[in-house]
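ASSEMBLY PREDICTION REQUEST
Request ID: AP-0331
Submitted by: J.K., bench scientist
Number of chains: four
Total residues: 1936
Priority: normal
Notes: Please return the full assembly, not individual chains.
Input sequences:
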Amino acid sequence: MSDEIKGLNEECGVFGVFDATDASRLTYFALHSLQHRGQEGAGIVSSDGQQLYQFRNRGLLSEVFADKKDLAGLIGRSAIGHVRYGTSGNNVLANVQPFLFHFHDGDVALAHNGNLTNAQTLKSHLEDDGAIFQSSSDTEILIHLIRKNQHLSFIDALKKSLNQVRGGFAFLLLRKDCLVAALDPNGFRPLSIGQLANGAYVVASETCAFDMIGAKFVRDVLPGELIVIDQDGLHVDHYTTDTQLAICSMEYIYFSRPDSIIHGVTVHNARKMMGRLLAQQSPADVDMVIGVPNSSLSAASGYAEESNLPYEMGLIKNQYIARTFIQPTQELRERGVKMKLSAVRGVVEGKRVAIIDDSIVRGTTSKQIVHLLREAGAKEVHMRIASPPLRFPCFYGIDISTRSELMAANYSVTEMCEQIGADSLEFLTIPNLIKAISVPDGKNTPHGGLCVAYFDGDYPTPLYDYEAGYLASLKKQQAREVIQ
Amino acid sequence: MSDEIKGLNEECGVFGVFDATDASRLTYFALHSLQHRGQEGAGIVSSDGQQLYQFRNRGLLSEVFADKKDLAGLIGRSAIGHVRYGTSGNNVLANVQPFLFHFHDGDVALAHNGNLTNAQTLKSHLEDDGAIFQSSSDTEILIHLIRKNQHLSFIDALKKSLNQVRGGFAFLLLRKDCLVAALDPNGFRPLSIGQLANGAYVVASETCAFDMIGAKFVRDVLPGELIVIDQDGLHVDHYTTDTQLAICSMEYIYFSRPDSIIHGVTVHNARKMMGRLLAQQSPADVDMVIGVPNSSLSAASGYAEESNLPYEMGLIKNQYIARTFIQPTQELRERGVKMKLSAVRGVVEGKRVAIIDDSIVRGTTSKQIVHLLREAGAKEVHMRIASPPLRFPCFYGIDISTRSELMAANYSVTEMCEQIGADSLEFLTIPNLIKAISVPDGKNTPHGGLCVAYFDGDYPTPLYDYEAGYLASLKKQQAREVIQ
Amino acid sequence: MSDEIKGLNEECGVFGVFDATDASRLTYFALHSLQHRGQEGAGIVSSDGQQLYQFRNRGLLSEVFADKKDLAGLIGRSAIGHVRYGTSGNNVLANVQPFLFHFHDGDVALAHNGNLTNAQTLKSHLEDDGAIFQSSSDTEILIHLIRKNQHLSFIDALKKSLNQVRGGFAFLLLRKDCLVAALDPNGFRPLSIGQLANGAYVVASETCAFDMIGAKFVRDVLPGELIVIDQDGLHVDHYTTDTQLAICSMEYIYFSRPDSIIHGVTVHNARKMMGRLLAQQSPADVDMVIGVPNSSLSAASGYAEESNLPYEMGLIKNQYIARTFIQPTQELRERGVKMKLSAVRGVVEGKRVAIIDDSIVRGTTSKQIVHLLREAGAKEVHMRIASPPLRFPCFYGIDISTRSELMAANYSVTEMCEQIGADSLEFLTIPNLIKAISVPDGKNTPHGGLCVAYFDGDYPTPLYDYEAGYLASLKKQQAREVIQ
Amino acid sequence: MSDEIKGLNEECGVFGVFDATDASRLTYFALHSLQHRGQEGAGIVSSDGQQLYQFRNRGLLSEVFADKKDLAGLIGRSAIGHVRYGTSGNNVLANVQPFLFHFHDGDVALAHNGNLTNAQTLKSHLEDDGAIFQSSSDTEILIHLIRKNQHLSFIDALKKSLNQVRGGFAFLLLRKDCLVAALDPNGFRPLSIGQLANGAYVVASETCAFDMIGAKFVRDVLPGELIVIDQDGLHVDHYTTDTQLAICSMEYIYFSRPDSIIHGVTVHNARKMMGRLLAQQSPADVDMVIGVPNSSLSAASGYAEESNLPYEMGLIKNQYIARTFIQPTQELRERGVKMKLSAVRGVVEGKRVAIIDDSIVRGTTSKQIVHLLREAGAKEVHMRIASPPLRFPCFYGIDISTRSELMAANYSVTEMCEQIGADSLEFLTIPNLIKAISVPDGKNTPHGGLCVAYFDGDYPTPLYDYEAGYLASLKKQQAREVIQ
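STATUS: Completed
Returned structure:
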C-alpha cells in the first residue's frame, strides 16, 4: 500500500522529555522523526518548573512552527509534544494536542495516542455532572476523571482514572515538576523510554525519535505501567496488573518507521522477513520483483532475495507532492496524467513482474498500480501482499472505522485479484506474519503478543461503546454474503 | 551522494506543448515530474494564438501556483514551462523563467536549460550597442541577438543567433503561433519530443514528463537541431551540422529521474549496471550492501545482486524535510541531533557494510554517513562510489564552479578514504562508467557519446570566457600539488 | 488622546441577529462597524436551527475572515459575533469569542463585553468542584454556572447565574432556537436592540452597527434586563429589579463611534458640547483651535465655534499605519522620524494654538503633541482636555488596571502642564461633563446616570475580588503624596 | 470626492536621499508619508558606493517590507524609493519602481512620477533599433535613450534624453556615486529638496516626507532643472531653459497631503481658502456644513467659518477598510449594508445641510452621499464642490483617461444636480480656484502658474501621441451634444 492512502493511518505520535536543556527544541526534532504518524496537527507544551507554555496548530510540524519565535517561546527544561492524524470532520484546532489545562492548583498538559472504547459513556456521565468539554476528542476525558478525584493525590487520581478508561492508549502528562507516561493493559500502542547523554529521560512512540536526538534506548513501557519521571529520576509503577501484551501488528506491517525497534524487533527486519516468508509461501514465476514505494521496499527486497530474483525500481514515487498541489481534472486523469506513482517503462517493458505491497485497504491503489505496470509494458503482474487480508475494523487507535470500505471484508481473494486486474494475488498467512515479527515478549501470549484482530476479528478486549454497532455491521455483512 | 547536497545540481528543467487543451495545466503536471531538476523557481508562459500570458515566481511549483487562479489565467492551447535551480546570489524573480518579451511585432517567450560559455563577451558587445538586460541570466542574450536581426525572418534570426552562442543549451521558444526547440551542437543537455494521444507534440528535458501526462516518446532532439512545431505539424531543421554527441554523464549518474530514458538508455538500468560493474571491479568482503537514499538505491541493488549479498535499508531519509524547518543548533548537532539521514541500528549493528553512493563532491556528506553507520554499531564501513572521482568543473550547465571545493580535485583516493573515515573507498573507472551507460548513438564517438570532462578534464569544446580562469585555477592547483 | 494609546481601550463589541437571511454575513458587516471596540480578535457563531457553527481567530475582522470560505461555512439564519480587545498576556486563540460549548443536550455560544468583579472567587469554587476552564477569560464562568443548574430550564438557570456574577457585563447567548441578551444591573456597558426591514431583531454594542446594516433602532437594553428573541418574537424579561443606571462616561468621551446613539444621546453631539462647555469654562487667548485626530475632532470644532476661533487642521494622522510596520530606531526617532502624527507647519507656524484632546492617560502622547507643534513653529500651545482628569481605575470593562500609570493620579494639573510642556492645561469639570452628555434616563440618578468613577473614585458597586488590591494601591499613593 | 474613488489618482510618489546613515530606512519612512500617492506597489534601491541593491513588490509599503530582512538588505548611504499607483491592466511586478539596470559600466536606478506624452513613438523607434523593454511603463524609455548615447558622459546623455521626452515628469536617478533629480519644463509634478540635520540632501514628491524624517525644506525643484547631488554637494543645472510653470492644480485640490507645502503654499490653507471663496460665491441657506471625509474636511471648515455656520461631523468614514474585505452582496447593499461611509443620524436628522466635496468624477459617490444623508433624515442637501467641474482628461500623470467617464464632460451642472439628487449643486469657479491657491511663482504666468486643463481643456503643451485620440473623443462628444 502506498502511504498516501487515507483510511489506514496511525492516529498519533507522542514524545516527552524531562529536565534537559533545549527541551522544546529537542521535542521539535523528535516529533519531526514521528511526523509519519500524523500530519494534520502538531504541538508542544513545555514547563520551566513553574508554569506550562503551549503552542499548537493544524498542519505539519514545519508549518506549525514556521515562525521560530513560537518555538522559542516554549521555555523550560521539560516538554511533551504530539503529532496528530485527524479525520476531516474533527480536524479543528481545539483537537490539536497536547492539551493544556490551567488549574489554580497547577497546570496539566496531556498528549495521547490511541482510542478509548468507552469514551461516549464516560463523556455523557461527566456532562450530566456539569463537565464542559472543549474538544470532540476522547483524550480530554482523562483530565475530567482526574479532576473528579481532587481529594486524592494527582498520581492516585490518575491511577483511578486510568482504571476507568478502556481501549488502546499511550498517555503522556506533563506537570510543572514531573512527566508521566501510561500504557493501556494490552500495550496496543508502542511507547519506549530513552536517555540522553546527560542522563535526562525521554519517552517516545517510536525509537526512531531517540536516534534523531542522540538518545539511547532504555526500555519499552509495558502494559499497565505508569512511569513517573521527576527530579528524583524514573519511577516504574502500575495502575493495573491485569495485563496481556497485544501490540498492534500494523505498526510492524505499515505504520512505524523501518528503523524503529518495537518490543525488541527492528521494523525493517520484520518487513524483510515478511517478504522472505511470503516468497517461500507464495512464489511467483517472474523476471523481477518490485516494491511499492516507500513502505513496501523492505518486504520487496526480502521477497527478491529469498526468490533469488532481481529487485528492480519499477515504480517511482514523486517526492514533491504538496498539500496545495493542483489536482488533475477527471479528463486529464483519463488522458493519463498521474501525480504520485509512475511505472518505469525501461524496467518493466516486456517483463513478468512480482509487485509487493504491504496491504490492501480499499483496493483502489492496487488497481492503479497494476494498470500503471501494464500500461508501461509489463507482460504479467503478480501481486503479493506482505500481510494477511484486512477484514475487520480497529478500535484501538487505527482509523478503519467501517467494514464496508475494506475490500477483503467484502470479497474473496479470487474476486479481489480479478477486480485489481492482477495475474495472481496472494497474501501472507497470519502464522507467517507472527513468525516474521517474532516479538520476544510475546512468546507465551496468544498470537505471539500481537493484535491481529483486523485479520481474524478476534479482539483482545470487549468493545464497549462500539459493541452494538460492530455486531450490527457484521450481521449486515453476513446477510450480504448470503445474498451473494 | 544524498540529494540535498548543494553544489552539484542540474540547473533547470523545461517543457513545452503546442495545440492541446489545458496546455498550461499539462505543463504544470509535466514540470511537477521535472521538479528534481530545480526547486528555486518555476514559471509557465501560455499562448492563446493571439497573446502570451506569464506567471512565474520563486519557490517550488506547488508554491508558485498555490493560488489556482494563477494557473487558470494562463489560457490557450500552447505553453512552455521551466523549473529553475538558482544559486543564492542570483535567486531573484527577474531570473525566473520562462522569460516573456513584448514587442510591437509579437511576443516571444524563452526557457533555457544549460550554460553559455561566451555569455560575458556577447553581453558586453550588446550593451555597448545600447542593449539593456533585465536579468543576470545568460539566457536573455539569445533574445537580444535575435532582435539585432529584425531584417531576417524570426527563424533565420534565431538560427543566426544560435550560431553565435557557445556552450550547453536546450532552448524552448514560444510565439503566438509556434513552439521552437533547439539543442547545442554537442547535445550536452537532454531534450526529447513526445506526442499526446490527440497528436499534439510536447518537448521535455526528461521523458518522465511524458509518462506523467500520458504522452508517448517520439524521438530525442539531436545536437544542432532546430525543431519547429506549428499548425502544420513538426518540422526538423538544423542551425548547424558541425555536431558531435557528448551528453552529460552526470544526467545518468545523479541528476535525471530513474524512470527517464535518455538517448535510449533507462537511467535506473544504467545506474544498476554501474553498481554491477563496480561490484566486479571493486568487491567488498561485507555482510550487506546499503545504498544512500534516494539517488543511489539503483546502484546499490546492482552491487548487492552482483555480489550475491543482502541489500538492506541501513539508512533512512526523513521524508518531511521542509524549507522552513528549524535547524538544530551546533550544540544539539554535537549531541547527536540529525535532520535528514538516520542509520538503522537494528540492521547494521555488529555488521560489515558496503555503502554505495553515486558521487563525492565535497566529502562532507560521505563523512557524516560513515560516522552515522559507525555510531549505529557497524563493524566495518566500505564505501563504493558508482562513478569516477569528480575532479574538474562543468561549464555546460552543472553548478560546480570551483575546483577548490571538489574533494577529488585536491586529494588522492587514499587521502579521501582517510578523511571520510571509511575502511576502504573505491570509485568506478571511466571505462566502466561508459560501459554501464552504453549510449547507442555514441558508439563511434569519443567517450561513447558522453561528456566525462568532470572526471578527466577533457572538454569537448573550447571554454571561451572561462578559459583564462580555468587555466589559472589549474596552475594554482599544480603549484599546490607540488608543494604537497 | 490619539486613538493608538494602549491602556485605555474598550474591551469588546458584540452583535447578534435572529432569523434573517445571510445572518453571519450581516454579523460580519455589523462587527466591521464595531471594529474600533477591539482589534485583537474576532469571531462569529451561527445557528441553522439544528446546530451551531463557529469561526474565530486573532487579528482584525478582515484578517480573521480573509478566506471567504470561513464565513460561508457559518450557515443558518441566526448568529452572534464578537470583536475583542486583549492585553498581551492573554491574547491567545482560546480567549477569542464567541465561545462555543457542545453539550449532548444542545450547543450554547456566548459573547461578552465587560468585566466581572467576582470572577476569581467564582472560578476557584467551580474548579474545586471539578470544573475545567478552557480560557483565562472571565466570560466562561457564566456557562459553568448555568451547567451547575441543569435541573432548571435554560432561562431559569441563566437568571440564577446572572444573579451570581458581579460587575459590568453585556452578554449575548445563542442557542439553536433562540438569542438571549442580558445587561448588568448598572447598565455599565451599552447594548441596543434594532430591527431589520423584514422584522428580524438585532442586538449590538453600538447603534452604528444598525446604520451599517440598514436596521432601525428599537430600544436600549436596560439594566437588569434579560431579552429573549425566538420564533415567537422578542420577550423582555428581568433577572433582577435592583438596578440603577450608571452608563460608562468614557463611552461618550472616547470609545464609541461619533455616530452611535447611547441612551438617546448622539456621541458626536455630546463631544461637541463638551468642547463648547470647555470653551466657556476654560477659554484660551489663541489664534486657532486644533483637535487631535480622530477622536477629538468633534470636541475641537465645538470649542472653536463657541470661542469664535478658526478650527484648523494642525495635526495630521497617517492613515496607513499597519500592524507589520517597521518601527524607527531610537536614533531615527531622535533625529525626528515620526510615524503616526505630524504637525502642519504651514498652519501653526508663528501662531498661538489651542489643542483639544479627549483625555490624558499616561501623558506620553500629550507631551509628543506639544513637542510636535512647537517644532513646527507654534508660538504658544494651550492644551484643553474635553473630560476631567483620569485618576482612578475602572473595574467594569475598561482596561486601566493600575493607578500608577495614570498621570492625573500622580500629579497635580500644574505639574502635568509642566511635564507636558504646554503653556497652559485645563480639564472639563465633572458637572460640565454630565451637563454635556445629559442622559435623558439619568435625570434623577446620581451623576446623571453616568459612571464617573475614573474621575472621582465613587464606584457604584462594591469591588469584590478587586477591593483589597485597590485599597492597598490607594494607601501606597497616599503615602507617596505625604512624602511628596 | 471621498478618497476611495478609482479613476482620479495620482500616479506616484518618489523620494531620494544621498549620503546619510540608514538611507534605506529613511526612505522607507519617507515613502510611508507618501503612501497616499500610490498603494499598488512600492520599492527602494540603495547604493553603498559600489553597488546598487533593490527590493520592490506589489502592495502597500508595509506589505512589501513585511519581512524586516528585505529592508535590512538594502545597505548603503544613498537610496531612492517609489510608491506606485497602477491601473489593473499593468499592475505587475515588472512595473513596480524603482527600476534597476545593471551595466558593465555601472548600475542605474530610476524612479518616475508623471506621464510621457510621446512614449509610444519613442518606444517604437527604440524597438526597431533592437531595444527590448522589460516593463509596459513609459519610465523605462529614459534609460534606453541614455544608453543610446554612451559616447557622451552620463549627465550629458541624460540631458539629451530629457530633451527627447515630452509630458509631465519628475525623475529620480541613482548611481553608485550620485543622485539626480529632473523636472519637466512645465513643472507639472511637485518635487522638493530638503536637508537632514547632518547636511545630507533629500528629494521628495511632497514636503510632508521631510517632516516625517526630520528634514528641513530647502527649495522646490524648478521646471527644466537637473539637480545633481554627489560627494561635493548639490549642483543645480538645467537641461532646458524653455520653461513655464504649470503645476497640477489637482495636487492642491485633492492629491497632496494637507500638510505639504507646494511652491510655497500649504495645501490645507489652499483648501480652506477654496472653501471660503466657495462660501462667498455660492452660499447655502442651511443649518450646518459637513465635509466628505477625509480629503474635503479643510474646505468644509473654511466654508463653515466663512458662512458662520456650525461645522458638523455628519459623515463618518470607516477606518478599518482592508484590501481583503468581504464585500456586501447586491441584495445586502439594497437592504442598506454600507461599507465605507455612514451618515450620522443624530446630527443631520431634520436639518438642512451643505455637504462640501473636493470634486466630482463619475458622480457615483456624490449620489450615494446625498442618498445616505437623506436616509438619515436630512431635510435638504446642498452640495458644494470646492473645485471647478472636471471636464477634460489629464495627460501629465493623473489617471483620467477617457472623457466618457467624467460626469461634468457629459452633463450640465443642472443635470448633474438632478442625477445626484441634491437640492442644489455649485462648483468653485476657475478664477476663484486660482485665487485660493495663489502660487507666488505663478503671478505672471497663465492661470497663475497652475495647470487647469482638466477644467478648461487649455493644455500647456502639444499632446503628441494622445493628440489624435483626444481630438476624436472631442468630436464624438460634440456630436453627442448636438444630438442632445
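REVIEWER COMMENTS: The two ends of chain A are 28 Å apart (CA to CA).
SIGN-OFF: pending second reviewer
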